[in-house]
Amino acid sequence: MNKNRVTLINSIKNSGHILSLAFKTSPGYVICRALMGLVTGMKHGFEIYFTSMVLNAIDRGESLAQILQPICLMALFWALYYLIYHLYWNLLNARQKLDFQHRVHKKFFHKAGELDLAAYDSPEFYNDFIYAMRNCEAVMVRTNDCLGDMIRSIAGSTSVFAVLLTIKPMIAALILGVAAINMVFRYFKNLIDYKYHQLLQEQYRKSWYIDRFFSLADFAKEIRLTGVADNLRQEHRRVVDDTRRLTVKGNQAGFAFTFIVDLLSFVSESFIILYMSKLLFDGSILVGAFAITIQSIWKMNNMISDITAQFTKLGRDALYIDKVRTFFATEPTIRSGERVPEPFRSLELKNVSFAYQDKPVLKNVSLRIEQGDRIAIVGYNGAGKTTLIKLILRLYDVDGGEILYNGHNIKEYRLDLLRQRMGAVFQDYRIFAATVAENVLADRYTSDQEALVLQALSDSTFSEKLETLPNGIHTELTREFYKDGTDLSGGEAQKIAIARVFAHKNDLIIMDEPSSALDPMAEYQLNQSIAKNAKEKTVIFISHRLSTTRRSDRIYMFENGTLTEQGSHNQLIEQNGSYAKMFNLQAENYRSNVNQ
Ligand code: ADP
Question: What integer pLDDT is reported at residue 4 of this predicted model?
Fold first, then answer.
């Protein structure tokens, strides 16, 4: 949908999509809400009908028993209606809604998990994604409620209209005509509302960002240490001013339409009341017909404005709906193959090229890794080292060339099984709100896994810290879920992330700057431990600290996305190229730091 044009048609289409999504998620929820709308709407028709029966019976001077008949029927009907009404709203709807929200979340989590990593690279998609996540279930519930309310008002006005037709067709036709004109005016009023709502989006977006800035922990330090908060406070002032200006302008633009609608209703209602009074005095109609005609006009007017109000609500939500739709319609491009990967023997990159959007990052890279190799990938920041790893793990697919696992293109393999063969720790590893053991396993813990977890933690040199934790491997990490959760330092958390790789017994271990948060002593111990414990494994180390990588079997040096040098440490030092320069520079820095 064109983002700059929220039209009534678009918002109806969007709502249709959202409803079909809601229906697929929980058909019972959508059907029951629609049925309840229908029942509530029909109630208005029945009320009018029963009222006219009672009043006409009184007017005709019928016996009390005859008058009591429609009254009893009406009482019975109301009792039944309110029973259904309260059962639905207090019991069924609350349960169905919670169940529906749970299912929407599940759908959302599933979709989020299968999306390409590239989806997160586009700031526009990422913003929409967050927007969709925050609003999707609320939007679906609101749209479903809108549908229910619309059905209620349509059923209500139709049934009232039907009753009126039986009393005075001419009046029914007049009310319908007025309602139609009323709707046309309200439609134009809605268009104005959509337009201004659209114009206000930018202000909402800014306001949302400022709210997040002041409420999230991410910015807490900057708020206290820099002047950025003042800027944002001023920006908030501007947002409020612009919102006020646009809102007033929108209200002024819509004023004429609302005024005309109300004037029209007033004039038509007055005319009908006068006309019906005359008929009553002439004796051409009974008091019952008079009373219910007046009641019908008010009911019809209310319901018609309610129908248009529902369209306004849908229009207001159009933008959210759009984002939710886009999110669910986004399909992953990285698809799983069928082949089951055998234990790792070799990995080969042939002329691999890759670009993020339009930015080339890797150019014609060819290299080969054999089982048992200890490989170092080195280079300055931004050389493309991490990207290379992401391609090997199929978090992105290559743009040119191919990657072969045991001689077959990695695209042929089952994605989940291929990734299970490889264990990777990234620089931006994450600790989850879970116990130490669950963090190591990245899964649920069962008591038979204790030895495995302890060994992995020992291999990643975490044992010393483990002894100080209150509940050992059952210590809960972070305070997101647990009030008394433990927060680890950067280096300690990094060791947990490394233990994750050891616990999974992958054939190929990939470590992206595994010691970036460690002090030199801890780094040395960790390197020794990795060397000892990953003896049979193939290990790819990424680092720009060359002291970590010098003992590798082979070193690949990357510069600006190109593989420029390869060989053992001694060979590369002998070549006296970029690697030797980088190594000497780092060694010199180290020596001068020590001597200072
Ligand atoms: P290295 O690991 O060697 O430091 P990376 O592979 O992380 O380098 O990044 C290589 C280049 O690609 C850098 O210029 C970086 O800014 C860019 N880059 C990395 N990730 C993304 C991304 N998701 N979207 C766009 N550019 C990216």
Answer: 44
